[in-house]
Amino acid sequence: MDSSNTSPQQSPNNGHTEEATTSSSTRSTAPVSSESEELRRLLGKAANVLAEHVARCQAPGARIVPSAAEEEGEGKGGVWAERLATEFGQLAAATEGVGDGIWSEIKRICALATNTWSEGFLYKLYAAPTAIGVVGEALTAALNNNAHVFNGSPVGVVLEAVVASELAALAGFPAETAGGLTFPGGSYSNMHALMAARNQRFPEIKTHGMAGGSARRPVVFTSQHAHYSLEKAAIAAGIGLANVVSVPVDGRGRMDAAALRRLVEESAATGGTPFFVNATAGTTVLGAFDPLPEIARVCEDHGLWLHVDASWGGPLALFADRSVFDYTIPHGRVNSLTINPHKLLGVPLQCSVLLVRDGLRVMKEALGLGASYLFHDDCDGVSWDSDLNTNGNAGSAWARRLGGSWDVGDATMGCGRKPDAIKLWIVWRYYGTRYFTTRVNRARTAALGFAQMLLDRNRAADAASSTSSSPLGFWRLLTAPASTCVCFWFVPRALYDSSAEFEEMRRLAMCAPDADIFGQRCYDQRWGGATKTLFARMGVLSKVLVDYAQLDPPAPGAAGVPAFFRLPFNNPNVSAETMASVLDCIEAAAAGLLAGGPDLY
Fold first, then answer.
1. Whole-Å CA distances, 402 to 168, 176, 312, 354, 393
2. CA-CA distance, 583 to 590, in Å (whole number)?
3. Quick one: which of 398, 375, 429, 352 has its CA closest to 135?
4. Residues 375, 379, 385, 389: is their CA dihedral positive or negative?
5. Tens digits of residue pLDDT in 401-443
6. What φ, ψ does residue 308 adopt, rounded to 5°?
7. For 122, 252, 269, 369, which has the most beta carbons within 10 A of its beta carbon?
8. Count helices and strands in the chain by DSSP H and E runs
9. SS3 225
10. pLDDT over 70 for what percent of the chain?
11. In the β-sheet with 561-568, what is the strand arrangement from edge to edge?
12. Letter string b/e over residues 23-58, b meaning 16 or more CB atoms within 10 A of that residue's CB
């Protein structure tokens, strides 16, 4: 913020804390000339507090998650959380506010927050936002617009249409018709796609509901490795989990298109009405990309709506250089697609975009109610839709994309809508498309580099063991990275009583991972327990935060893949040193438990 036009009282604190002049327990009652001056004063202070917070988060050795042990001695997470609830509670009992004392509490909140600004935050499918993204988030809050109708947020609605149209073009959707909407997260985007597809195929359900005597039973298809939001959406849509068919995946975690065709035909033959297929571009665990051309062919042959959940992998598919990652979304053959710019693109949480091939008309017809108190088709004899929104040209491209009106809220299941497109537009405009390309290229390159680092450590340990004692353990990739997720194990020597058994497993680990993740014969189910134990130990020892996952068995009665570490690469600034520190921390956790023997695992 430029403080050159502010008075000394309104400028940032010039090296002194606000608490030095105002008691943290006394509410500030000094009058301000206007809300704008109060906002100027508060934002000046906020800029300093937040910038200092980010600087601390990015300092070497900064913790990722506050330690319950540090905060409350030996308190466990649940106990610690209850103590925090007590600390921050009693709001209704406080009849007076704390005024400028709020800054000490804001700093306390910052100190207790998960540190997503650190390179060592390799935990979930998001990372630190960009600085300009934070500005965009603040702008959205300051505007406080509602993007349900055009007059509620004219620029918000227009920017939403613009970014959706640009993303749709990158995804190979037809420019004449494709439109889109922002939602608070990919789960809501996916749910709206399912709801629209259901009501388009079964219009009687919109009026009479699932209990209205429809003779048809809607059936949904999604892969075994798809995100659980599709099952949640099926619950919300009244379809039910029994009518969500789980399609097997191949040895690389991708939907098996031949199995999909077989299951669709079996469902139709046994009284179901298949209508919706959810494919995934970037599965949650493996980062696998389903074969869209083959899946699209099945959907075209059977008249099914094809939705692509590209929440995680969409930025990679749309922006990566083809020499880095080559994945094409078949032009015009996908009905809808979800992409989350808050994953991989540096836009602050939450920001999800649902793209619809045939425009918002499909959404409005399927979900709209035309509430007259919001959506005014006629105002004093003036045709609101045609004159305001398309300059009298009902055939304009924007009219087709938006379903005839800039009042887009009727295309959703809600009413009030935060104009999240503003922050996406600001980040895109500030950095340019090349920045997005560079980000996702780096993420893909980092994943490949980290996978190679695992193999290099094995080779180094193998060379060292020829002249010294057996190594601490060995690294094993589950599979070569499909996109930007790396899945692997560290197998401690202490897991095995027999040196011969350990050496045999280590020898197998020196080979490249098999193409079929379910066909590898060298899995040991004990690796899952070791992974969980090491993960828990790392929470005490390290300045990095990683996660683990596991895959269900491909068929009932078959052995699943034991729990493994999973690192998603989102932050474009993750260095080789940080990657090495992740491996160092896992090895340190194993070394600390070595003396306990295999029972600890």
1. 13, 11, 26, 13, 13
2. 11
3. 429
4. negative
5. 999 889 999 999 999 999 999 999 999 999 999 999 999 999 9
6. -115, 115
7. 122
8. 20, 13
9. coil
10. 83
11. 473-477, 485-492, 561-568, 547-551
12. eeeeebeeeeeeeeeeebbbbbbbebbeeebeeebe
Q: Max CA-CA distance within the chain? A: 91
User: Contact at 8 Å (CB) between 571 and 127?
Assistant: yes
Over range 355-373, report the average pLDDT: 92
| Pairing mode, strands 352-356 and 336-339 | antiparallel
* pLDDT, tens digit, 9 for 90 and up, residues 313-346: 999 999 999 999 999 899 999 999 999 999 999 9
Query: Do the beta carbons of residue 389 and residue 376 sit within 8 Å?
Result: no
CB of 83 closer than 8 Å to CB of 533: no
Dist. CA 75–CA 61, nearest whole Å: 23
Handedness of CA 585, 586, 591, 593 (dihedral sign): positive
How far apart are alpha carbons 542 and 561 in whole angstroms? 26
**Phi then psi dihedrals of residue 463, to 5 deg:** -65, -40
- Residue 191, SS3 per DSSP: helix
Amino acid at 20: A
Number of Cβ within 10 Å of residue 358's Cβ equals 18
Can you list the positions of beta strands (E) in 212-316? 217-223, 244-247, 272-280, 305-310
Query: Rounded CA gap, 496 and 379, in Å?
Result: 78
Q: Which residue has the tokens 């959205």?
A: 140
Nearest partner of 3 among 51, 52, 43, 50, judged by Cα: 43
* Residue 562: partners with Cβ closer than 8 Å, 6 or more residues away: 489, 523, 524, 525, 526, 527, 528, 529, 531, 550
- Cis-peptide, bond into residue 90, ω within 30° of zero: no
- What gap in Å lies between CA 219 and CA 272, rounded to an integer? 6
| Distance between CA atoms of residues 243 and 230, nearest Å | 12
d(CA 562, CA 552): 9
- Reference 472, options 456, 488, 496; nearest CA is 496
> For the residues of 103-167, what is the DSSP string, one character each?
HHHHHHHHHHS---SSTTB-SSS--PPPHHHHHHHHHHHHH---TTSGGG-HHHHHHHHHHHHHH
Identify whether the C-beta of residue 333 lies closer than 8 Å to the C-beta of residue 296.
Answer: yes
- Enumerate long-range contacts of 490-493, CB under 8 Å, 24 or more apart: 490/530, 490/531, 490/534, 490/565, 490/583, 490/586, 490/587, 490/590, 491/524, 491/527, 491/530, 492/530, 492/534, 492/590, 492/593, 492/594, 492/601, 493/594
Residue 185: name the closest of 311, 308, 315, 360 by CA: 311
Angle between helices 576-593 and 433-465 (to 10 degrees): 40
DSSP collapsed to 3 states, 411-456: HCCCCCCCCCHHHHHHHHHHHCHHHHHHHHHHHHHHHHHHHHHHHH
CA torsion through residues 150, 154, 156, 159, sign: positive
Question: Token pair for residue 204?
Answer: 């009687």
User: Does the structure show a pLDDT above 90 at 97?
Assistant: yes
